[in-house]
Amino acid sequence: MTRILDSNSDLTAVLNEEIWSRLQRQPPTGAKPRLASTLMLLDRSGPEPKILMGRRNPASKFMPGKFVFPGGRIEPGDRKMNAAGALPLPVEERLARIDPKSHSLPRALALGAIRETFEETGIVLGAADMGAPETAPAGEWQRFAGHGFYPLIDNIHFIARATTPPRQARRFDTIFLAAETSDIATTIEGAIGPDRELVELVWVPLSQAHDLELPLITSVVLCELDRRIAAGMGHHLPAPWYRVGPKGWLRTEL
User: Fold this and answer.
1) Which of the listed residues 66, 153, 163, 217 has the most CB atoms within 10 Å of its CB?
2) At what angle do helices 89-96 and 105-121 cross, to 10 degrees?
3) Residue 82 class from Cβ within 10 Å (0-12 exposed, 13-18 middle, 19+ buried)?
4) 100 Rama class: left (phi>0) / alpha (psi -120 to 50) / beta
5) Measuring CA to CA, how many Å separate 171 from each of 30, 59, 136, 159?
6) Is the distance from CB of 214 to CB of 199 less than 8 angstroms?
7) CA–CA distance, 56 with 16 (Å, rounded to integer)
């Protein structure tokens, strides 16, 4: 980050000033964006909302030492895992526009973000009143289910979408979702440490989160979250999509 943003900033202009000219000097890579989802955990119990941020391992080759939201690529098991409840209809409808041919995608995006959050932080966004799932896809979902919870998706918010620009070696088409701390069932110890993907977790007031060492797009999405909260945090509110067109960054609403 080279500047501090706030909810009144012209976010598209900032992205163009900070990134567009540099991108034009880079050769094409041919990399295609991989679909990913990430979860912003929001604590609104106090006078100012707080957001959970995790610091990536300084030894990582990708964004070392940066503060990010937990998240990652969608995996096949995310399309198969059973969940407690259903996505809010406006959220499901907007997520379905990403790939209208895939009926399982909206749930997979939400479940992928919950799985990645569990894997990277130990936080279980789940419900125990249905008992433990009898079956779960192999891997991290089996470990999640082993703690006696179904993933909880009925209060997931769709905040933003951002596609990594062309000419980058690693590209992601990332869906930024949000959930409330009231949906956290428990936290399993041992997910954070010097040899793990995230080495530190912090609950930081939303107004102070921009002071952390953030990727620029993360700061932009934090501003969008701030605007969403100010507008009432309704599921019906549109989600912006940030991507690069022929003349620079674009912001359209989904």
Assistant:
1) 153
2) 100
3) middle
4) alpha
5) 10, 20, 29, 20
6) no
7) 26
User: Concatenated DSSP letters for the chain?
Assistant: --S---TTS-HHHHHIIIIIHHHHTSPP--PPPEEEEEEEEEE-SSSS-EEEEEEEPTT-SSSTT-EE-SEEE--GGGGT---BS---HHHHHHHHTT-TT-TTHHHHHHHHHHHHHHHHH-EEEEE-TT---S---TTHHHHHHHTT-EEB-TT-EEEEEEEPPTT-SS-EEEEEEEEEGGGEEEE-TTS-STTSSEEEEEEEEGGGGGGS---HHHHHHHHHHHHHHHTT--TTS--EEEEEETTEEEEEE-
Domain ranges in the chain are 11-253
Of 230, 228, 227, 211, the residue nearest 219 (C-alpha): 211
What is the homologous superfamily of the domain 11-253 according to CATH? Answer: Nucleoside Triphosphate Pyrophosphohydrolase (3.90.79.10)
Single pTM value for the model = 0.94
Of 91, 114, 111, nearest in space to 239 by CA: 91
Length of the chain: 254
* Phi, psi (rounded to 5 degrees) for 247: -115, 10
Tokens 């990010």 belong to 68
Q: Are the C-beta atoms of 174 and 195 separated by less than 8 Å?
A: no
